[in-house]
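[job 0412] stage=complex_fold ligand=adenosine-5'-diphosphate status=START
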Amino acid sequence: MIDLKKINKYYQNEEETLHVLQDVDLHIDEGEMVAIMGPSGSGKSTLINLLGFIDKSFEGEYLFEGHAFTDWSDDALSKVRNQTVGFVFQNFSLIENNTVFENVELPLLYSGYGFHQTKKKVMDMLELVGLIGKSDKYPKQLSGGQQQRVAIARAIINNPKFIIADEPTGALDTQTSEEIMKLFVELNRKSQATIILVTHDPENIPYCSRLIQIRDGKIIEDRELSQ
Ligand code: ADP
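[job 0412] stage=complex_fold status=DONE, emitting structure tokens
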């Protein structure tokens, strides 16, 4: 599904050129649940911005289902992004003044659904993530774990080809983190969702099918995990 070939990425600041991704080769198949670990500054965000079609200024080749996107316009790229990838962030990134229902509904409206076409889909999604009965609440009325469930429902409602979760348990306590990881595993196993998870937390690793370690912009370890 995802094929990175000899990716190099540079950032230029006033004094120097930073070589933040160095000859990265990476293949990810449909249905994998991949953990990306590495210290701060090692290039994880740069890598997921590239995988998520946010950044297209790099050297090398990114093939998604055999297509290269580097020379696409920003508009075309953001369309592909909306249809292809669901993002989950550490801080949930929900719209505070919108209800749970409205937060989860938003990607459907962006992709052209009318208001009257969204209800069943949103309710099904809330059921899937364990939030029955919460549709009229506002994010602030929910616990951190519940807010992350809303964010996950929002990320998957458009049936993305894959999910990028950037430190999704970083703001949660241990037990809630476990629950969120179990939800990702359920989505991965039941719906064959492909999940790319950036994490600092070693406790998240046993839930994943593969571990990629990155240091100084290089993949230094890439191995399958037994689940
Ligand atoms: P991580 O997500 O692993 O913490 P990043 O991908 O954010 O790492 O950063 C990798 C390196 O690139 C770091 O040295 C960081 O300072 C640098 N960097 C990231 N974004 C920029 C930018 N927009 N301009 C210049 N340097 C950047």
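Residues 11, 13, 18, 20, 38, 40-46 surround adenosine-5'-diphosphate (CB under 6 Å).
[job 0412] exit 0
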